[in-house]
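Morning - phosphoenolpyruvate inputs below, output right after.
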Amino acid sequence: MKPVRNNNIQGTPAEQPATLYGICASPGIVVGKILVLRRHTRKAGWYHLRPEKIENEVNRFLQSIDGAEHELVHLRSQLAEDLADALSIIDSHILMVRDRMIVDRTVKIIRKRKINAEWALAKALNRIKKRFNAIEDPYIRERYADVKQVADRVFGILSGRAGDSFADVDNQIIIVAHDFSPEDTLRLRSESVLGFITEKGGATSHTAIVARSLGIPAVLGIEQITRKCATGDTIILDGHSGRVCLNPTHDQVEQYQEYSRQYQAFSDDIAFFVHLMPETIDGLRVKLTANIETIDEVNTVQKFGAEGIGLFRSEFDYFHRQKVSDEQLFFETYKYLLSAFAPFPVTIRTLDIGGDKFVEHLPVSNLRIDLERNPALGLRSIRYSLREPDLFLMQLRAMLRASVYGKLRILFPMISSLDELESANQLLDSAKNRLLEKGVPFDPDVEVGIMIEVPSAVMMADSLARKVDYFSIGTNDMIQYSMAIDRGNEHVAHMYDPLNPAVIRMIKRTVDAGHARGIDVSLCGEMAGDVMTVPVLLGLGLDELSMRPSALPFVKRLLRCSCSSQLTELGDKILQCDDGAEVRDFLNSYLPEYYPEEFGGR
Ligand code: PEP
Ligand code: MG
C-alpha cells in the first residue's frame, strides 16, 4: 500500500468539502491534488473549407506535425538510456511523424477534398491501414500500429487536447477520469500518480485488477466525478471503503492519515505469515499461488511467499509489444518466469483478449474486436486464438520451448464446449509436432488445464475433466456470465454478488466434477483473495487459490487458523442458502465465532 502523502494541503480549502461514494477497486488511502483527465476524443468537428481557408488549414496541420515531433523529442529526453525498447519505439515514431505517407497524403486530401485537417488525416489513415492489411508479412503488417499511434498524437494536437502524459506533472497527483483502460493503468506504474478515480468500471474489471496488482489505490464508478471537481482541487481517495472526500477539511485529512497508519501496521504484522506453511490446523494443505499480469511482479510475488503462479494473464504482455508475432520475445518472457519460480508451477494462460481488453495492433481478419456490439459475448479469448491460429501457435511454441526451464502449466481461457477444447488441443499438438520436427526440446508432460468461467463449461465439467489435467475456476467471468451482469458496468455493480448461491453451487459442481475424475481444481477469480469468501471456498473443497500477491499473507493466516471439518461444515451450510443475503447473514454470525481475531472486530 502507498503511504498517505499530503500534498500542499494547508488550512481550509476554498471549496466546500463533499463526500462521494464509488466502487472499492484497489485498497489504500492517498491524499493529493487532482488532475482531471479529458482524453482527446474523435469528436473534432468535420467540416468543408472555403477555398481561401485551405492553405491556413494546411499550415495548421503542418504545425501539428511540428508539435507532435516536439512532444516525442521531449518524451525521449525523459526516458532513461537503459530503456532500450522504449527508446527505439520513440525513435521510430520521431522518424515516422514526418513520413510522406502521413504528411503528404493528408495535405493532398485537405487541398483536393477541401476538408479540415482532422478529417483528412482520418481518411489518409484509412488508406494507409488498407494497404498495411494487404501485406502478407505479419511483421510488416504490424507496423501499422506505429503509424496509428503517431497519427493519434497529431490528431490529439489538432483537436486541442491537453498533453495526455502525467509525467510532466511536478507533484504526485490523483487522476480523475471518465474511464481508464487496463493498459492506461499499467502505464501509471511509471508516472507520478498516487491513485485514480473514474466514472466507469466495476470491482472485477481488468482495470481494477491491474490497479490492485500494482498497489495503486483506486475508486471506480463515481458518476460525473469529472464535472464535480477541477484540476488542482485536493481529494482524499480511500480505496478500502470506496469513498472520496473532495476539498477535505484539515481534520478529515488527519483522520484518514490515521486509518492509513493502522492499515499499514496490520499489513506489517501479517507479513510474518509469508514464511509459514499453507495448511489448516489439522494439516490439510491448500496451494496458495499468485495472479500476475506482468513479469515486473516476480519479486513482489516471491516476497509474499506464493507457491508459484496460478494465473499469468499473458495478454498484458501484448499491450506494450510492437511485435506481437515475435516468438523469441515471448519465449524469453516465459523462460524468465519459469526459471524464477522453479520448481513451483507457473500457469500461463493463453491470450484472453476481447471483453474489456483490446490490443490495437493485434491482427483480426476483417474485424475490429473493440467495435463488437457485445464484446464479452463476442470474439473473445480462446475464440480469438482459434480464429487466428498462426498467432496462437506462436504463443504455444514459445510456451513449450520455455517449459524445460521450470514447471509450466498451460491454461486455455473461456472454454465453453468440448469442441473448443479439442480444437485448442489439436493446435497444441501441432505446435509440439513442429518442435519435434525441428529437434527443439520441450517438456512432453506439460499440464494442460482450462478455465471454467462459462455456465456451459460448468454443466459439462464432468466431460471436460476427462480431457484436461486441472481446472481453474474464473469467478470474475462466471458471475458475469451466469447472472448476466457486466463485470465492468457501474450501474449493475450492486448486483454483482460473488456470494449468490447460484455462483456457490456452480463452484461446488465444478469441484465435484474435477475430483470425481481425479484432477485438481483451482480458483483464480478475485474471490480467492477476499477474506470474507475464502472460508467458503475452502469449505467447497478447492485445492488451490490463486490471488493478487498482497492478499497471500491474509489468506494464509485464515487458512492456518481453520480446521478442515469445520470448513466442510461451513461449505455444506452455505450450499443450503437460498439467496446472497442469507449467505451473508450466516457468515456474519459464523465468521466472528470461528475466527475471533480476524472477524471479531467487524
Ligand atoms: C476470471 O474470470 O475470474 C479470471 C480470473 O479471469 P479474468 O479476470 O482475467 O477474466
Ligand atoms: Mg475470465
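Note: The CA atoms of residues 168 and 198 lie 21 Å apart.

O.
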